């Protein structure tokens, strides 16, 4: 029998495809956030917006519905109903108005809130890749969630009065913190101590741009990058860099360095002044990439018996030094602690697309509905705000009353059904008893009729099947003959 094929590249249980630390939920019982990118109106939005929706789905991989197919007949109610069973936590709804404006709504299920954005400008992935000389497309980078980087969302607070702060910053602080929280909840949180740098393949950058024309505008720029970490070449010795680029140097006029005066290659590599005559500062690599210092990975082996004993002795010496310090004695010199080993990594970013410039227009309290918490074009006074709060409080009470009445009606109908079922069962049981009595009476009457019928035919009303009676005299006469 042939061996069953196992997918080694994209299978969930295959080697190298385990979920990264950033994709795992922060708590054991918590679920990783999932999203659905939907176009309202299906093909009515146009081919450009449809392609934008596909690009956003690829950016939100892997915890998104990448193969979702919409229909014209689908309503928002259909998606919100299925969001709960499927574990969807966020909805990104793209639509197009009658004026041709592209809008995006970012909502949290099941109760909101909802952010309304106007997509002022956008560029598709194919347009971004065409503008590059060496475009990059790596499918393995979409197996893990991107790293979310947010910039300039919450402005710096100053020691000023409330009126001055409102005049300098017309956008309320609650709106800034709410927008920050919603964008942070798109992806699972990560732990910097446990997350490996090699597991981060993509970055989603959300930058708030201050508007010079209107201070009331809340404008965001969204970018999507592929990230690659490598050891920078200029951190290596010049001699190693010279040998590493030997293939390129053969084409240049200078060629390879002259090693004839050295007895061994080690003399050239270990001598710090050996490569001074062959390289210059102009030949060094340009510092175009960002550099970070990370903890170098260390492979630790299992300690044997002697190493464990040595570690116990060091602990005893440390405890003895602490007790001597408490008693006022001079402690022995403790061995120096080993500093953590770090290494430099060069971070290179290459844009993947899409690009979007989003302008926040409205914030609603519920899921695509409810009380308007903030509006770009409409500003209300304190009295109007209080009146709106009272109106929504009355609506909430009416809604709760309707729910209570509906619940009571449902319970009452259930009780009626139970009572009607019980009455039907009792009636059926009584009818069954009456039928049994009638059957028994019919059986007795049929027995009486049989007796009467046999009596008429026998002449004496005796039993038809009774044996005939023979006299003894007749039997004796027969014997004599």
UniProtKB/TrEMBL annotation:
Name the record gives this protein: Brix domain-containing protein
Compositional bias (Basic and acidic residues): 298-319, 395-418, 454-463
Region (Disordered): 1-32, 296-351, 381-481
Organism: Neodothiora populina
Origin: domain of life: Eukaryota
InterPro entries assigned to the protein according to its UniProt record, in alphabetical order: Brix, PPAN-like
Biased composition regions of type Basic residues, renumbered to the chain: 1-12
Record field: compositional bias (Acidic residues): 430-453, 470-481
One matching Pfam family: Brix
Domain Brix positions: 35-369
């Amino acid at each position: 029998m042939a061996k069953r094929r196992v997918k080694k590249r994209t299978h969930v249980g295959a080697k190298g495809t385990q979920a990264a630390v950033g994709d795992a939920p922060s708590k054991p019982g918590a679920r990783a956030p999932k999203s659905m990118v939907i176009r309202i109106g299906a093909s009515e939005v146009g081919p450009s917006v449809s392609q934008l929706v596909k690009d956003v789905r690829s950016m939100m991989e892997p915890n998104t519905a990448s193969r979702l197919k919409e229909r014209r007949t689908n309503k928002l109610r259909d998606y919100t109903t299925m969001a709960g069973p499927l574990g969807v936590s966020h909805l990104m709804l793209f639509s197009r108005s009658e004026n041709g404006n592209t809008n995006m709504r970012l909502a949290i299920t099941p109760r909101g809130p909802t952010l309304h954005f106007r997509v002022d400008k956008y560029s598709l992935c194919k347009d971004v890749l065409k503008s590059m000389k060496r475009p990059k497309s790596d499918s393995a980078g979409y197996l893990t969630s991107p790293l979310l980087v947010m910039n300039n969302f919450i402005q710096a607070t100053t020691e000023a009065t409330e009126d001055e702060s409102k005049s300098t910053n017309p956008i309320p602080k609650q709106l800034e913190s709410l927008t920050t929280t919603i964008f942070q909840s798109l992806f699972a949180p990560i732990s910097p101590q446990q997350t490996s740098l090699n597991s981060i393949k993509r970055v989603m950058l959300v930058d708030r741009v201050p508007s010079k024309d209107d201070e009331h505008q809340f404008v965001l720029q969204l970018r999507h990058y592929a990230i690659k970490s490598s050891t920078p070449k200029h951190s290596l010795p010049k001699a190693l860099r010279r040998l590493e680029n030997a293939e390129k140097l053969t084409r240049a006029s200078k060629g390879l360095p002259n090693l004839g005066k050295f007895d061994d290659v080690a003399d050239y590599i270990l001598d710090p002044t050996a490569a001074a005559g062959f390289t210059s500062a102009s030949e060094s690599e340009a510092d175009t990439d960002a550099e970070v210092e990370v903890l170098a990975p260390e492979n630790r082996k299992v300690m044997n018996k002697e190493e464990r004993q040595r570690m116990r002795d060091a602990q005893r010496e440390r405890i003895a030094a602490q007790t001597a310090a408490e008693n006022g004695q001079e402690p022995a010199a403790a061995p120096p602690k080993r500093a953590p080993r770090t290494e430099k990594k060069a971070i290179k970013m290459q844009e993947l697309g899409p690009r979007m410039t989003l302008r926040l227009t409205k914030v609603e309290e519920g899921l695509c509905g409810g009380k308007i918490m903030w509006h770009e074009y409409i500003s209300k006074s304190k009295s109007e705000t209080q009146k709106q709060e009272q109106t929504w409080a009355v609506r909430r009470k009416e809604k709760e009353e309707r729910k209570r009445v509906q619940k009571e009606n449902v319970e009452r109908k259930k009780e009626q059904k139970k009572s009607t079922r019980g009455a039907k069962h009792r009636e059926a049981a009584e009818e069954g008893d009456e039928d049994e009595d009638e059957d028994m009476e019919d059986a007795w009457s049929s027995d009486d009729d049989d007796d009467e019928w046999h009596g008429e035919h026998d002449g004496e009303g005796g039993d038809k099947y009774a044996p005939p009676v023979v006299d003894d005299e007749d039997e004796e006469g027969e014997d004599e003959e």
